[in-house]
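Aggregate trends can hide what the representation actually does to any particular protein. The sequence in question and its C-alpha cells are set out directly beneath this paragraph.
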Amino acid sequence: MINQVILFISAGFLIIWGIAHLFPTRSVVNGFGDISVDNKRIIMMEWINEGVTLIFIGILILIVSFIDYKCKIAEFILWTVFFALNILSIISLCTGFKIKFIPFKLCPVIFTLSSILILLGIYL
C-alpha cells in the first residue's frame, strides 16, 4: 500500500509540473523578444511538448500503480520511466540549470525526486 502512495506522489509531482509548463507558455515565448515567427513556434512547441510529456508520464505512473504495480510489465514500465526521468534530469542540468530563472533550476530536482520515489515505490 505504501508503494502505491509513493508512486502516486511521484505521479502527482510530474502532472503538476507538466501543467505548470503549459500556463506560462505565451509569456515564455514573448520573453525571447524580437525573434522570427518560426523560432517562436519552435519554442512554443518545445515548451508545450515538455509539459504534455510530463503529464503523460505522470498519468502512466498513476495507471500502472492503480492497476497492479507489482506485475512484471508494471515494473518494466516504472523502470523505463525512471531512466527517462533521469535522462531528462541530465538534459536539464546541462541546459536549464545554468539559467538564472528559478523554475528552470527546479526541473532536474523534480525529475530526480520523482525517479527516486519510483525506485522507492518499486522496492519498499
Summary: The two ends are 10 Å apart (CA to CA). Residues 25 and 47 are 6 Å apart (CA to CA). The chain has one domain: 2-21+51-123.
